[in-house]
Amino acid sequence: MVGGLFIIITSQNYLKKVVGLAIFQTAVFVFFVSLAKVLDGTAPILTKMANAYSNPLPHVLILTAIVVGVATSALGLALVLQIYKNYETIEEKEIESLELKSDK
Amino acid sequence: MFDIFLDDAPALVVVLPLLISAIIAFMPSKIWPWIISIITMLFHLFLSLHLLKEISVSGLIIYEFGNWEPPWGISFKIDGVNIGLQLLFSIFVLVSTFYSRKIFLNEIDYRDSGKAYSLWLLAVGSLNGIILTNDIFNLFVFLEISALASISLIALGAGQNRKALLAAFNYLIIGAIGATFYVIGVGFAYAMTGTLNMNDLVIQLGQYSDGQLAIFAGMSFMLIGLMVKAAIFPVHIWLPPAYSYAPSAVSTLLAALATKTILYFFVRLLYEVFIIYPSYLSLFLDFVLYPLSLLAIFIGTVIAIYQDDIKKLLAFSSIAQIGYITLAFSLKDHSGVASGFVHIFNHALIKGGLFMAVGYFAILYKDRVTLNSLKGFGYKYPITSFALLICGLSLIGLPLTNGFISKLYLFQALYTNQMYFSIALVAVSSALAVVYFWKIVEQMWFSEIKFKSEKEDAYIYLPIWIVTISIIVFGIYSTPIIEFSNLSADYLISGYQN
Question: What's the whole-model pTM score?
Answer without folding.
Answer: 0.90
